[in-house]
Specification:
Elements lengths: L24 E7 L27 H18 L7 E8 L7 H15 L1 E11 L6 H10 L3 E7 L3 H6 L9 H10 L3 E8 L6 H13 L4 E6 L7 H7 L8 H17 L4 E3 L2 E3 L3 H7 L3 E5 L4 E4 L2 E5 L3 H8 L5 E6 L2 H12 L6 E2 H7 L3 H9 L3 E4 L2 E4 L1 H4 L2 H10 L4
Helix pairs in contact: 1-2, 2-3, 6-8, 11-12, 11-15
Length: 400
Amino acid sequence: MGTLPEGNPWPSSDTLVSLREPDSFHAYVHIPFCEVRCGYCDFNTYTASELGDVSRLDFDSALNHEIEFASKVLNASGITTPELSSIFFGGGTPSLMTGEQIERILGQLRLKFGVALDAEVTLEANPESTSTQLLEKLVSAGVNRVSFGAQSFDPDVLSVLDRTHRPELLLPLVTKAKELGLRTSIDLIYGAPGESIDSWAATLESAISLGTEHVSAYSLIVEDGTKLASKIRRGLLPDVDEDLNALKHALADQMFEAAGLSWYEVSNWGNPSVHNQAYWSSKNWWGFGPGAHSHINGNRFWNRKHPAAYQQALQTGSPAIGHEEIDDLTHLTERIMLQLRTSHGLDRSVISSAGVSAAVVARYLAEGKLSMEGNRIQVTKQGRLLVDGIALDLVSSIKA
């Protein structure tokens, strides 16, 4: 797993200086447990043998302790937040938690912050750890959206990724979720070593046939230190083919659009996720749990990664291991990097306020990789696969 960025220590006063006006408020809850570690995974997750004395059976108590701590910090800082607009249980494998644990966490969030009546409440679920009984309990707890980690419908690709579920598990789970009134999403990964364009096309067809209202499709990134990286380095698996990945992204976009799922972010199609949009728009969110990151009124901070260290820190105060105040230029450049990836694009005022070179913008407009509509600058279909490089080029043109 990657190391956390360096930052300043958490304020000893347990208060935050408000650098910007409060905006909508969101919560991320990190569930760090997994039954097995997938070969490609670099997320902050732990199997039973890596947890020491930490038990997932009572881990909701630690999360609820941090929720209470966050409420005290915001009150002491004079920061008034609106009710939560979205809550996202990510991981790890949130579906390893019981419905009762999720209910207790949601109850604490309601008690300390309030949850809007129309709030989006999402839980990531792996097929092998999800049952119809769990889905029923999640609904009664207040979850209204489930994101299933399918990754692929090709057993050979799943094997390469060290995924343990069977593809046929998805249809009955998605069907039950929809019967219960849950909104549904499917997560896919393309670019696994050995995955052909035909295999990817079949996965796309299977995903579309489920009839979910949202699909995420991410290009596989081979992270240093993972089992997959080791196999590629030793020649046991071929490396990722980036040119083929470009074709796979184009195929996904074509097939999703034909199925009525329009893109709203480079890797996301369908009914937009409120929570994802909050990240891309630099809204306020508090991330609860080991390794979780937060952004509150211009303050960014992140928690200790290991669940044991996280729990121990909570006994005496903040679990945060780093904190930084985001200056205006950093705020603007991050908006460029994130919002340019979305179909909504960027307001021209962000570009001008940041001091982006007009010549660089004009070049991308002339090349057809950016377009300008009214006061908004957007990436075109031609530029979509190059968007991160384009955004970096814009940011690099800012004179210090």
